[in-house]
Amino acid sequence: MTGPVEFLTGTALGTRVVVRTRIAGGYTDALGYLRSCDTTHCTVETKRGTLTLALAEVVAAKEVPPPPPPRPRRHVGE
């Protein structure tokens, strides 16, 4: 079994991932597409923007399936 840093450095760019990192007071997750990764940082493009994460702070990472398709809009009066 590989660790989260090995997973990120070995994963193809464009893969949808979730990455958990340590922050002051706990942990946070970044869900999105892996855009770059080197020996010290990885970049994940999320819905809210692009995040650069220090690999030294990564505690978990894995591939996730594509998002579900958008739900159809409901029309008023139906």
Strand content: over 45%
CATH architecture identity: Roll
The structural class is mainly beta
CATH third-level topology: SH3 type barrels
Q: At the first level of CATH, what is the class?
A: Mainly Beta
| Strands in their spatial order, largest beta sheet | 4-3-2-1-5
N-to-C terminal Cα separation, in Å? 52 Å
**Structural domain tally:** 1
**What's the mean pLDDT score?**
94
Can you tell me the overall shape?
A: elongated
Radius of gyration: 15 Å
Q: Biggest sheet, open or closed, and with what strands and sense? A: 5 strands, antiparallel
> Number of helical segments?
1
SSE order: HEEEEE
Helical percentage: under 10%
Uncertain segments of ≥5 residues (pLDDT<50)? Answer: none
Number of strands: 5
InterPro entries: SH3_Rv0428c
Organism: Cryobacterium zongtaii
Pfam family, one: SH3_Rv0428c
Protein name: Ferrous iron transport protein A
Could you explain the architecture of this structure?
With 78 residues, the chain is mostly beta strands. It has one domain (4-63): SH3 type barrels (Roll), CATH 2.30.30. The chain is built from one helix and five strands. The protein has one helix at residues 4-10; strands at 16-23, 26-37, 41-46, 49-54, 58-63. It has a five-stranded antiparallel β-sheet with strand order 4-3-2-1-5, covered by helices on one side. It is elongated. The protein starts with a helix and ends in a 15-residue tail after the last strand. The mean pLDDT is 94.
